[in-house]
Amino acid sequence: MMMRGDKTQADVSSSDGQSSITAMAPPPEQPATSNTRRLIILSFWLVVACLGLPHWIWTTSIHRSDLPLESMNDWAEGKSCQPHYPLNIRLHSQSHDSARDAIVAARTETILNSLTDFQLYRFHVAAGNNTVSDVPTQDDVLVVELKQPSKADHVEAKLQSWVPVLDIVHADDDVERLAEFISEQVRSVFADEAKSLSYILGNTPFATGKEAIISPEDRKILEARTTRAFKYASALHLTFSLFTSSATPSAWDIEEALEQYITPLLGPFSAITKFTVDTQVQLQASFSPSIEGPTFDAATGQWKLDNSDLGGFINAAEWPLSPSIGSGPTINFVLYVPSAQQSPLVIAETGGSSWLIPQWGGVQILNSQHLSGRLSAEDLRPIMLTFADQLTSLLGFPQSPPSLSLRISSLTRERATSLIMSASSTLGALSRLTLKLKSIAIPDTVAKSVDETINRLNQACQDLNQGRFSRALQNARIAEDEAEQAFFEPSMVGQVYFPDEHRVAVYVPLLGPMAVPLVMAGAKELIAWVKYLKSPKTKTA
Description:
With 541 residues, the protein is of the alpha/beta class. The chain has 15 helices and 15 strands. The protein is 46% helix and 15% strand.
C-alpha cells in the first residue's frame, strides 16, 4: 500500500492491465552551482587570454629589424649611383711658354671630351709648372712630358714602364696638330679600359647609355679575361711548388727568384690586394694517372701532352696543393720537372711547355738534360717571367697599356665599379628575400650591416665620381663584405627552413586537445546565457 501523499520515482496505472513508468526530470540546478561553473570556465579563459596567449606570441614571434628597403632597391636598380670617371692629366713641356702650354692643354681636353667612345670619362688636362723630374701626384692619372726632338721631323710617343708618364717627342709649332697628336696618344692609352668599363656596365641597371660600342671580337676577349681571372679578394695567397718526378733537382733558390721577378709586380699591386707567399718542394712526384698521355712522337723525339690532358695534369690526390692556405683564395704556380726518360715534355698542339688553369693557377714544365741538384735564380729566370705573366692574367690585368702603373690604375677603377655593382645586387636580393619570406628573422646585426653597406656605397660612388679611385675601391670592398655578411647571416638563413607550417604542425597536436574542452564549455555556457536572455520570464522581469 502507498500513501496518497507519497511521491515515488514512478506512477503505476492498471486501467488496461499494463504498467507505464514515466521518468521524472532532474531537480533544477541551484544558481550558486551555475555561477561557480561559469566562474571556473571564465577563469580558464582568462588564463589563456591574459597569460597563455601573450606568452605564446612572445616566445614564437620572430624579430624583424626595419630595413631601408626603398634605398636598397634604389641601389639594386642603379638609381643611387651613375658612375663616371674623371681623369686628371698633367702636361709638362720643356719650353718656357706657359701661355702656349695652357692653350695646348685646353685644346687637348676639348678633343678628348668630344670622343664618342670615351663618354664615361671626363678629362681634365692642365699645364704643369713643375719640372720633368717631379713625381706624379696622387690625383694625376697620367703625366704627359713634351720633349724636343733631336731631329726636326722626329715624332715619338712612349710610355714609361713603372710610372704613369707618357713621353712625347714632338716639335710641331702648330697648336692644333700638337693637341690632336697628344689626344690620339692618350686615347690609345685608355682605349682598352674604356671597352672593359663599358663591358662591365653594359646590360646592367648601372648602364648610363654612354658606354662604348664593343665589337664581337673585343667582347670575346673581355669574356675570356673575366673567366680566367680570380674574383676580387682583399687578400690572396700565392704558392710556388717544385715537383720533380725523380730525386733531382731537390732544391731551388726560390726566395732570390721571387725577390727579383715577382716582388716588383706585387709591390705596386698591394694597394689593391694583399699577398702572402709560400713555397714547397716534393720529390718523386708523378703526374695524375687519370690523363691518357704523354705519348712519344718518334718524328720529333718529344713526349707530347694533348690539350685534353692539361686540365687533369695536376695530381690533386698526391700533390700537397691545399686551397685553404692563407686568409684568401690560393693561386698555385707549379714547376714540374719530368724524368729523363720522358723529357722533353711539351704540349702537342702548340709545342709549348706552360699553360694557365683559369681561377686556379699556372703550370710550367722544365725540360733539361743537365740539371743539377739545385736550381739557381738564373735557371729560374724564364720560369719566373712566365709565372709573372700568368699572375697578371689571373688577377685580371688589362692587356694594355704596357705601363704597369697605368694597368694597375685601370684595374683599380674596374674593381671599384664591379664591387659597387655586386654589393648593390646583394642588397636587392636581400630586399626581395625579406619581402617574399615574411617569417624570416632579421636580426639587428643584419640591419647594421645594411646601413654600413649603404653608407660605404655612397662614399664609394662619391669617391669614384670625384677621381679618388683608391678610396673608392676601399669603400666598395667594405660595402661588398658587409652586404655578403648581411645576406648570409647564419640565424637568418636557418630560419628559412622553419616556416609557419612547421610551427602549426608542432603546436596543434599539443594545444588542440586542451582547446576543445574549453571551446565546447564556453560555447555551451554562451548558448545557455542567450536562451536565458530570450526567455519570457526575463522579458517580463
